[in-house]
């Protein structure tokens, strides 16, 4: 455990390039997990709602797409930050 | 349809029958339609501009490579980034060492020499220097045009109003929009009271969709007409720009909405209209919301939260459209360039093998990107309409 700490400290001391790239990668992965969970839940609830009331299917579908786009927007925000870390 | 190779006699009999029955009518009407399509002035103008740019395209030799290893290596990151970023010329194709690209006007204003206008072909793909201007290669000014003083050092950054690839793409998209919608307007006037035909039949349900499903429910029956032109313009501009960014043929194919400056301006329009059409209740809800006093008075917590909301909502609009579009373009570029990457890494056979999977995935991602284009145009318009609705809402207690 302490050796891990020493490795991280040495990395931060010399230059943060390697650690920054690791952070960016992990951040983008976490954003993908968040988007996956969020949109998966939206889709699941929408399908349940359509199953209960098939004639409301079109309305439910449009609202699902809107909500999915909004959640995906938040995930893309995190992806942009990670891309900024990597390339700027 | 019958192929000529299959059975020549059958084809001949087929065409003879066709010729006898429809000889006069269809061919004549077809010719009339083609003539009516060609002679309108705007089509001739567009055709003229197109041929002018094609003939003006520069055939530029790339720099000679120094080592053979550098010759073979394919820089995937650089290729993908160049595919989605802005450039001073419109690159059409690269065959081995030659590079065909269409130069675009460069418009600069520097402190010392005033206004300068020249074609970007003077920069010779970013290597040469012209009239003390050159495209910086590295450092903080990477990619920008910088001015050099007499010693050859960077002295200043001139004001750069050039027509770059994105700007040319915007102009092409706007001309396309004008063409489509002026035709629709003209045929709507002509078909008054009758059923719509042609391109009016394609655009009218979409326009009615934006009015009835987006504008009316969110802004309200009484006030939606003021905002409807802006909402329609935003919807179709984003939709056409997203779709033309996917078609790689020459005048289309510029990555317009994948440029954060463009989406920033669109979000800025929404922000300005929301701010200027906000009524008293809108501002009251921000600076003096109906919350318990301790959230407002010594430290204005709720007003600060509401004020950051005023700024983050257009900011998120900008980021959402930009990130969706650029992610789609980059993924397609990565899949296509995988072919060349594998070919340089593991020989040509690997390139051919990967190309099957790569083409399949590129087509799939392009289709997905078409869906995303529609969805993003709809979401941008819907959220703008929601913000206008919230800004002009009447107070109901």
Task: Report on the architecture of this protein.
- The complex is a heterodimer of chains A (88) and B (397).
- Chain A has 3 helices and no strands.
- Chain A has 88 residues and is mostly helical.
- The longest helix of chain A is centred in the middle third of the chain and has 36 residues, at 17-52.
- The termini of chain B are far apart.
- With 397 residues, chain B is mostly helical.
- In chain B, strand 7 (145-148) and strand 8 (154-156) form a beta hairpin.
- Chain B has a domain at 165-391.
- Classes of the chains: A mainly alpha (88), B mainly alpha (397).
- Chain A binds chain B through residues 62, 65-66, 69-70, 72-74, 76-77, 79-80, and chain B through 213, 316, 319-320, 322-324, 327, 375-376, 378-379, 382.
Major pleated sheet of chain B: 3 strands, antiparallel
The helix-and-strand class of chain A reads mainly alpha
Which residue ranges of chain B are poorly predicted, with pLDDT under 50 across at least 5 consecutive positions? 1-6, 61-70
- How many E-type strands of chain A? 0
Query: Number of DSSP helices of chain A?
Result: 3
Using a beta-carbon cutoff below 8 angstroms, give the protein chain pair with the largest interface and the number of residues from each chain: A-B, 12 and 13 residues
Q: What fraction of residues of chain B sit in β-strands? A: 5-15%
Q: Overall 3D geometry of chain B? A: globular
Could you give the order of the helices and strands of chain A?
A: HHH
What proportion of the residues of chain A form beta strands (DSSP E)? under 5%
Largest sheet composition of chain A: none
On the 0 to 100 scale, the average pLDDT of chain A is 86
What is the CA-CA span between the terminal residues of chain B?
69 Å
Annotation keywords:
heterodimer, A: 88 residues, mainly alpha, 3 helices, B: 397 residues, 3-stranded antiparallel sheet, 9 strands, 61% helix, 10% strand, disordered N terminus
């Amino acid at each position: 455990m302490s050796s891990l700490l020493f490795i991280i400290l040495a990395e931060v001391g010399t230059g943060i390039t390697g650690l920054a790239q690791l952070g960016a990668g992990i951040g983008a992965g976490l954003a993908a997990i968040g988007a996956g969970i969020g949109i998966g839940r939206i889709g699941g609830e929408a399908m349940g709602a359509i199953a209960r009331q098939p004639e409301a299917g079109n309305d439910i579908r449009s609202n699902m797409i809107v909500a999915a786009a909004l959640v995906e927007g938040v995930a893309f925000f995190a992806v942009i930050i990670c891309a900024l870390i990597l390339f700027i | 349809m019958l192929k000529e190779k299959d059975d020549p006699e059958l084809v001949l009999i087929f065409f003879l029958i066709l010729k006898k029955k429809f000889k006069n009518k269809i061919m004549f009407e077809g010719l009339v339609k083609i003539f009516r399509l060609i002679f309108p002035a705007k089509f001739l103008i567009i055709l003229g501009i197109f041929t002018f740019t094609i003939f003006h395209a520069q055939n530029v030799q790339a720099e000679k490579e120094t080592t053979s290893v550098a010759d073979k290596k394919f820089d995937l990151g650089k290729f993908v980034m160049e595919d989605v970023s802005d450039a001073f010329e419109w690159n059409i194709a690269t065959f081995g060492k030659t590079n065909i690209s269409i130069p675009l006007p460069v418009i600069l204003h520097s402190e010392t020499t005033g206004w300068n206008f020249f074609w970007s072909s003077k920069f010779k793909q970013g290597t040469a220097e012209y009239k003390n201007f050159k495209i910086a290669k590295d450092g903080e000014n990477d990619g920008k045009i910088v001015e050099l003083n007499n010693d050859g050092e960077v002295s200043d950054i001139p004001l750069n109003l050039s027509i770059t690839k994105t700007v040319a793409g915007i102009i092409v998209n706007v001309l396309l929009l004008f063409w489509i919608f002026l035709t629709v307007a003209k045929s709507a006037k002509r078909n008054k009271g009758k059923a719509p035909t042609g391109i009016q039949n394609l655009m009218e349900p979409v326009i009615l969709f934006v009015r009835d499903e987006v504008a009316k429910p969110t802004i309200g029956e009484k006030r939606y007409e003021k905002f409807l032109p802006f909402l329609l313009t935003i919807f179709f501009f984003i939709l056409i720009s997203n779709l033309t960014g996917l078609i790689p043929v020459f005048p289309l194919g510029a990555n317009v909405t994948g440029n954060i400056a463009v989406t920033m301006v669109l979000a800025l329009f929404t922000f300005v209209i929301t701010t200027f059409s906000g009524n008293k209740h809108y501002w009251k809800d921000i600076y003096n919301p109906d919350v318990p006093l301790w959230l407002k008075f010594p430290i204005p917590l709720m007003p600060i939260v509401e004020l950051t909301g005023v700024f983050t909502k257009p900011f998120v609009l900008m980021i959402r459209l930009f990130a969706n579009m650029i992610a789609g373009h980059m993924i397609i570029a990565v899949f296509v360039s995988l072919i060349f990457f594998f070919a340089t890494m593991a020989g040509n056979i690997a390139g051919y093998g990967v190309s099957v999977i790569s083409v399949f995935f590129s087509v799939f991602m392009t289709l997905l990107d078409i869906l995303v284009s529609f969805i993003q145009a709809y979401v941008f318009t819907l959220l703008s309409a929601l913000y206008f609705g919230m800004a002009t809402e009447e107070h109901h207690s």
